[in-house]
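Before the break, one more example. Copy the sequence into your notebook; we will annotate it together after we see the structure.
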Amino acid sequence: MSARVSLLLSLGLAIALVAGPDAASVAAAPGADAAARSADEAVDWLLGYLRIDTSNPPGNESAAAAYLAGILHAEGLPTRLLVTPSGRANLYARLEATGSKEKPLLLLHHMDVVPPGDGWSHRPFDGVIEDGRIWGRGAIDAKSLGIGHLAALLDLKREGAALRRDVIYLAVADEETGGSQGMQWLFEQHGDLFADVGGVLNEGGSNRVAGERLLWWGIEVAQKRPLWLRVSTQGRGGHGSTYNPASATHQLVVSLANLFRDAAPMRVSAATKDYFAALSRFHGKAFAQVFGSSDLATVDREFQHMLEEGRVGEVLMPGMSAFFQDTVQITALDTPTTSINVVPQQASALLDVRLLPDTPVDDILKRLREALGNNPSIEVLLSSPPTQPSPTSTETYRALERVLAGQAPLVPSFITGTTDSRYFRERGIPAYGFSPFVLSGDEVRGIHGVDESIPLVRFREGLETMKKVVRTAAAE
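Here is what the structure looks like once it is written out:
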């Protein structure tokens, strides 16, 4: 073990053993049952985790990995710290089964978070409980999930549960900026660690709540794929007082405008069709009002007619078009100048392109190049190949059904965002986005925004749900 790794793990152990001043006490009141004490302990873990600033960029996941490793080591579970050449840390632990085994279950979450920005009512890295909520960047995305996984793993370890499959705990870096220093690097350099994985539980679940009622568990099985691009132009620089239509900035703006001259074509991908078919049981009346029938064959036929006639906008709610088209979003513009009266010689833009699961990358790049014209250069920063949805016939998905279906139906979901699950699906490993936390739409709005928080009662309930799922999926 290197001195650096030893130092990190020692730091993690020290942090893990120090209870925060606002934490619920691990030493619960006399008479409290084991489940309550375990939940109190996990609340403490989450508060400590939230106090570690892992904003990406730059990430700083080493302190978070050491913190989690310290908790695992205190329980007698060894870990591996996998550090990229640039210093980004990823943490791996494995609780092994004995005897004949099924393929392992992998519990995945990312340690990095998006920068908090300004305007918070509670400081984003204080990790406090106020007004019945746990506040902090990462409270939902995705440190609470990581602590849920940790609690479930250690629950099995402490009880000496008889396992029929190994359970792997994986905390990764860099998910928020594409995963090149996290899951991508791990597959490239340590792919042997995942060669036998039989199922993955990760972020991406999208449960639907109405009031206090859970309508369904949204289990993510498919997602759009990221294609991140840098578009750059070169031009004649000079003084801002001159007329210079050939400048880099003018060329860039004109080229980018061409991307939105025509609406992106719409189509019904297999993932979209399957998702809306799963939702039809809940929205049959709405389908009947729009299409004249709730019969899926009729709905599909009528929707295809609307696509052909350009009338889809009549029936899709705002934001819903992303399920039917490859989208392009300009997220940043940049030039090297900082003065208003200097014409720069170069300019660039970042494009966040999201592809339907089966769109060929070459097809969309060809369309974008034709729209942009010959002048701009296009650099691919991140790409992802077409993938198949994860099947619902696996042991991992059946375990979700056995635990969750008594509370609400399961909907195999397609999301327009992206997660590290795609790296597993590219390799034929089933991955499922599952959130054990039952949160309303208002409660999840803090994700990537200000005042991210999770209700304390929902976190505690979600811990028990995650423990049941992992136990059902892995224990005999």
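Residues 3-203+435-474 form a domain with the Aminopeptidase fold (CATH 3.40.630.10). The CA atoms of residues 37 and 230 lie 50 Å apart. Try to locate both features in your own notes.
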